[in-house]
Each structure stands twice: as structure tokens, then as C-alpha cells.
Amino acid sequence: MQDHPREIDETNPAGPVRAASGRTPTRRLPLRRPGVIGESYLLLVFALALVARMLVARFPADAYMGTGLLFDQLGLRIAVGLGMGPTALLPPLYPEYLGLLYRTYGYSHHAVVASHALLGALSATLTGLFVRYVGLGRKYAFLAGVLVALFPQALAQTRHLSPQILVGFLFLVGAFLWLRHRSRPRWFQVTIAGLLFGLAILGRAGLFVPIAAIAVAPRPGSGVVGRRFVLLLLVLSTTVPWMIRNSRLHEEPVLVDSTWAMRLQAATIPGSHHIDYRVPGRGTLYADHMEVLENRLALAEIIGFGLTRPATVVGVWLRRVQDEISFSGWNDAATRDLFPYHGIAYRWAQALMFGTLLTLALAWLILLRGWGERERACAIVVLAFTLLAAVGDGPGDARLYALPFLTVLAMRGAWGLLVLSRVRPFAAGATWSERPFPSGVMLPSRMRVFGWLALCAALWVHGFWHW
After folding, report:
1. Which tens digit of pLDDT belongs to each residue from 312-344?
2. So where does this one cross the membrane (predicted)?
């Protein structure tokens, strides 16, 4: 079993295929495990992503938009030693992160945005490495890293006081460790992945959905069930202490935060009110139970609205899915910040890059039906984040969480299309000396090719229509 990146002959990635002429191309043997020097091109990806984000970081967005004010004030409380205070308004990870930065570098939003740039550059580099462990060559890994490094929506998100970049990085590292080995991960990787997944939930409670999905995704080999159990146990051991703290504070069961139902209400019921966040004062000693009461009332209103007007709820969810797959590059953290989202260069770059990624990913999933273990897990993660975007979490944030996994599928699709262009499966008299694709990948029929082209055309029309 080969668990490290394997080199594919990119001059003939399909392997030896006998065409109508009877000539069999040569095939390069797999290379040994790539060393640091062999993967040094990822340093270029890191440098490119970091420079691009630092240029954006010169102009930080207004920190007092949306929940940025609350994060900023809670971070200041933690920095001066007051802690989170008697509140559970939002998940604790990002306020603790801001408090650490403020305590180390002083009260500086530039330091926060610079840390976002560093985490974003590491995410782009890790995406390229992920592509290598899927089994593609260095060119595909480099291209994947560049796409994530220069993705316009990810660059713009760097400017906002939002937990998306930190949480997305933790989730990506945990997923990489969990999926790095094709059969079963090592116990050390299971331990680190479980802790990182738990921290990610403490930064965005809705991430328990993709984490559960990636944990139960089919994996070959024996001993996987025990590792799944340990992974979920570590996730619970990281999150349950905070839930116990919140429940004791408000004297009733409270999960990661006490406002999740209010956010779901604002996303589900048209015309519902926005959340009025109230940060505890310096001398506040007792919890304000009004936030828990409002959250309970919001949950009851959601249930009642869903039972009486289910068609309206489904329509709202479908519109949010349309927003998720549209080419708009608007971020959820930007409520009044129009730079750079209304710029024509930003909008065109976002549309072309996101549309291309979706097209190539659909080529792998629909045209070629490529369902390897890691590719299947990436597809499940993308679908889980699309579900989150539909029922509650913001479409912009969910899209950026799913970006690395969508890019992996897109690189697989690009590789598959390259194979099809060279193999010419519909040529008259073509025969095969062996399978042109890995196990689990199906050779497309003409009907499937036409269906994929029609779906891509509809996707591009829809993307620009909701631009």
C-alpha cells in the first residue's frame, strides 16, 4: 500500500493505452517518496499567497461591521485578563485568538489581518500538498495552490475580523491528516485531527456536520471503525467542557453558543429581525439570560414556521443554494463594505475562477464518475458545506470552507479531461491494453458527455445571471 504521493507520467497520465495505430506509449515508473527538495515548488505557492494577502492586508476592513465589533470587544476583554465574561453569545475560539494577538502585539487590527494572511497562505500550500497525496503530479499541485492563493473571495476575506480563515485552516489540516493515508490513518494523525476538528467546532458550531460526514465516509482496510470512534471521542472531549460551562452559566442546556437559533431564524424566515449582540460590561458578574430566552423563542418560531409554511422554507433554502453556486464573490462578514466587491476586475476574476473550478469538479464527479476514497470524501465535504449554506451558515463562508476540497476535485477533473483528449475513447477501432483510468473511474459515454456539457452551460448561465 502506497500512502505517500505517487508520481504520474503527465505525458501520458492514463498509462499505456493501445490506440488504433497499435502503438503503445511508454510509461514512467513511480518515483520514490518526494523529499523536501522535490516539493520545494510549494514554497513558491506560499510566497505568492502571502504576498497577495499582505497587499490586501494593507487596507483592513471596518472591524465594527456585523459580528466584528463583538469579536473585537471580547478579544479586548480576554487580552486584559477579564476573560469571555458571563456570556455565550458566540463560539469562543476566535475571541481567544484575538485576545492572544492583542496581548502579544497590542491592540492592532493590522496584526490580526497579517495573521489571516499567514493562515491563508498556509491553506493554499496545504491544498497543493493535498493534491499530491491524491495522486496527481507537481504541475497539478502547483496549479491548485495558485488557484487557492489568488481566489478573489479568499483574498477579500483576509481583511475582515471573522473566524472563517482560522476555522477553515484548522478544518483543512484536520481533514488532511485524516485522509492522508488511503486506508487507515495512524493513531498520531487521528489524535491531532480530532483535536483540530474540536477546535474548529469551537470556532463555528455548524462544522460538526462536515466533520461527522468526513468521519463516516467509507474507507478501505481494517481497524477504521476504532479510529473513527477515537476521532469523534476527541472531538467531544474538546467541545463538551465549553458546553458544560455554558449550561452551568445559564442554568439550562446550551451548546457551543446561545444564539445559533437566532442566526438560523434570520436565515430561514423572511423579514425576521437581526441579532442585537450585547457584550458584558467590565463589572458584569452574572449572565444575561435574555439571550438564551430569545434563542429559545427563535427556535420555537422556526419550528412553527416550518410546520405551517414548509414550501416557503424550502424556497428560501433553494435560493441560498443558488447563491452558493452563483459567481458572486460577496463575503458574509461584509455588510456595508463595498471594496472590492463592486469592482469589475474582482467580479470577473471571481466568476471565471469559481466557474472553472465547478466545471472541472463536475467533470470528475459526473462525466468520469471518479469515486476514489479521498475524492469521495472531498465531494462529501463540499456537499455538507452546501447544506450548511442552505439551512443557516452564510453562503460566502461555506464556499470558502469548501474551496480546498473543491480545488482537489477540480484538479482531478482537469487530469481526467486531459486523459480523454489524448486517449480519444470514441475513435473508430480504438482498443485498450489496460484500464485507462484508476479503479472506480468509468469511461464516459457520448450521452454522459452531452449531459455534462449541458449541465456546465446551465451552471455558467445561472452563475452570471445571479452575478
Report:
1. 888 888 888 887 788 877 765 544 455 566 678
2. 36-56, 114-133, 140-155, 161-179, 191-216, 348-368, 377-394, 400-420, 449-465
